[in-house]
Design brief:
alpha/beta, 40% helix
């Protein structure tokens, strides 16, 4: 409300009504209002900290690129005013401030001189626990000294003290000197949530005292009526006005309609799964922004780099990593609001995905990040909420485990904000588990399966340069969060041509090999569904399968979510048998989801049970002699096809 959010809309959101700030989709923990730049409202304690860094970085990017928001909150070629003094303010409790994200925020904010204020509400409790019982650092305001970030602690009982301290730190941040911390010491009069006992840890007497003696509003009223700043009658009139506004908000909320059931599915994705991204226009200001932010020498270098990659693509000699790099450069030039975050970015990371980005677009758009995926995925989320189009490259997708909270929130943001905030974030990286990978368990986890249950994500895989190129371009243009998995052991090995300048669909499988009509007629054809390294494994054994008198429809699951059931169904109408060569575990894996969908939606087409050739639930060993017991490969597919075609199941 202090930010200008309409009280009626806030109350309606609490009442889960369609007229709420988020159409009833967010609730008390997710109040958002795009028109006032009020950005939540986040349920996981401290997850909001990197989001605020991304929001602050967006202010700096507006100034650096010379762009600002129009009335539709879209970037336009109008520079912010010379006296632009916007800042990002993020709240956290002193208990939540013990989270490692605070250190990451202070480091990032100091490094980039972000216009950011960390506002710490210090009520002495971490949920119901005395903060001192779980933390030795009660003076959070002093934590910034290691990063050159000043801090101030004020008495929350004294409204004037808070106002003076608040003005001091805000003036400091607005002056361009960088981030600051304000810690407000106060009391909590109620439990952490309605589920908390009022007498938490014997605090009933303390709370009664606090309400009587530590209420800052009561102190303010007593002090300023006593010294004549306002009279008792004026105070009563003020309270009457406030009460009337509260009653009006309650009445508005009470009389508002509930949201329709259909809204839930409408809020799944900002862009429909069948969107043709080739038709999406580039920003009209692209050339102007590029001209003033990229020097002629930089432009000459990057254009030569792009020309070299395109020559490789035409010759059929481009790798998956280079294909993604080419797509990223083309899209960053096409839309200057596109940014990129990665570890080891200056050096091109492990597979050259972000190669030459910082050298071309500068640190403001191409950020080399600390080794914490949660932090820079969170920063990207903050940028995405503020008109930018961030790309996150994960050196290995398994490292995304550090960012599960942020990935989850990225998937939920469009829905929980009632469709106010798009989340145009693209996460891309190498992952999966190839036979004889020899990377050990932690680098061989099926992270693609872990994120399948996160609502709102579009998840794809690409086992060829062409697929990686086209999907990357589409994901960057999509207005929702997308995740592209590429096969870690094929990033430099797989070579091919590209369908240059073309975006690929994000909702389609690809038929890579079609079984012969003769094998179908004889009942010796099997539909094979696979992805990542499974594509190479299947392609290597097609001749062997055919020599045995069988054949396959080989389908690459390029779209893992949403799943292309139309292509799968069309193949099953021919073969009536299916094997899934799955690069995830038996429990909770991709194959489990695909198998369930086939059994539920295509059961009448099956002449045999679904054959799942998936990883064992055991961790992936380093030694190849043990790994063969966990990871499936081409030889397993040959046996699986034989079993299905001969009825041995």
């Amino acid at each position: 409300i202090a930010s200008g959010v309409d009280p009626g809309a806030v109350m309606a959101e609490l009442f889960m009504k369609e007229t709420g700030t988020c159409k009833g989709a967010g609730g008390s923990m997710h109040i958002f209002d795009k028109s006032t730049y009020f950005q939540g409202g986040w349920a996981l304690v401290s997850e909001q900290l990197p989001y605020a860094a991304g929001a602050a970085k967006s202010i700096l990017m507006d100034r650096a690129l010379g762009v600002s928001d129009n009335e539709n909150f879209e970037k336009e070629d109008v520079a912010p005013p010379v006296d632009d003094d916007r800042i990002s303010i993020v709240f956290v409790g002193e208990g939540g401030a013990q989270n490692g994200r605070t250190a990451e925020l202070l480091n990032s904010a100091a490094k980039d001189n972000l216009p950011l204020l960390l506002l710490v509400i210090d009520n002495g409790r971490a949920i119901n626990t005395y903060t001192g019982d779980v933390a030795t650092n009660g003076s959070v305001f002093d934590q910034g000294k290691h990063y050159g970030v000043p801090g101030l602690r004020v008495d929350g009982y004294d409204a004037a003290d808070v106002a003076k301290g608040g003005k001091a730190v805000i003036d400091y941040v607005r002056s361009g000197k960088g981030p600051a911390i304000l810690q407000v010491h106060t009391y909590r009069f109620n439990g952490h949530s309605p589920a908390d006992p009022e007498h938490e840890r014997g605090r009933k007497d303390e709370k009664a005292w606090a309400r009587a003696e530590q209420d800052p509003i009561k102190k303010f009223e007593d002090k300023y009526t006593a010294n004549g700043v306002f009279t008792e009658d004026e105070l009563k009139e003020f309270k009457k006005e406030v009460l009337a506004e509260v009653k009006a908000a309650v009445k508005f909320a009470d009389e508002s309609p509930m949201p329709p059931m259909e809204l839930a599915k409408e809020l799944e994705y900002p862009d429909a799964p069948d969107t043709d991204y080739n038709l999406r226009p580039a920003p009209a200001f692209a050339d102007a922004v590029n001209a003033r932010t990229i020097s002629p020498e930089q432009m000459e270098t990057v254009q030569a780099h792009i020309a070299g990659l395109r020559e490789k693509a035409i010759a059929g000699d481009i790798s998956i990593g280079d294909a993604i790099n080419l797509a990223i450069h083309e899209e960053m030039l096409r839309d200057p609001t596109t940014t990129i975050h990665a570890e080891d970015l200056q050096a091109g990371s492990s597979y050259d995905i972000p190669k030459l980005t910082q050298q071309t677009y500068g640190k403001i758009r191409a950020a080399d990040e600390i080794i914490d995926e949660g932090h820079f995925i969170g920063k990207a989320l903050g940028e995405g909420m503020n008109g930018y189009r961030p790309i996150v490259e994960l050196m290995n997708t398994n490292f995304g485990i550090f960012g599960m909270a942020e990935i989850s929130s990225a998937g939920n943001t469009y829905a929980t904000t009632g469709g106010q905030f798009d989340m145009p974030m693209t996460i891309v990286g190498a992952g999966g588990t190839a036979p004889n990978q020899a990377l050990g368990a932690e680098h061989s986890q099926p992270f693609h399966a872990y994120v399948m249950g996160i609502p709102g994500l579009k998840i794809c895989s690409a086992a060829s340069p062409d697929a990686a190129y086209g999907i990357t371009k589409s994901m960057i243009r999509d207005n929702g969060p997308c995740f592209l998995f590429a096969p870690v052991k094929m990033m430099k090995e797989a070579k091919g041509t590209l369908d240059l300048d073309k975006c690929a669909p994000l909702n389609k499988c690809a038929l890579l090999h079609e079984a012969s009509a003769e094998s179908v007629a004889a009942g010796n054809a099997v539909t094979v569904l696979t992805y990542l390294h499974g594509v190479k494994e299947a392609q290597m054994v097609i001749d062997e399968i055919q020599e045995e008198g069988f054949d396959i429809d080989l389908i690459e699951l390029r779209s893992l979510k949403p799943l292309d059931m139309d292509t799968i169904r069309k193949s099953l109408e021919r073969t009536n048998k299916v094997a899934i060569l799955d690069e995830s575990t038996k429990s909770g894996g991709i194959g489990a989801t695909v198998s369930a969908r086939i059994s539920e939606e295509c059961f009448d087409l099956l002449d045999a049970p679904v054959k799942r050739l998936c990883m064992d639930d055991a961790p992936v060993p380093y030694a190849s002699t043990m790994e063969v017991a966990v990871v499936k490969r081409g030889s397993d597919l040959v046996q699986g096809v034989f079993d299905l075609a001969t009825g041995q199941y």
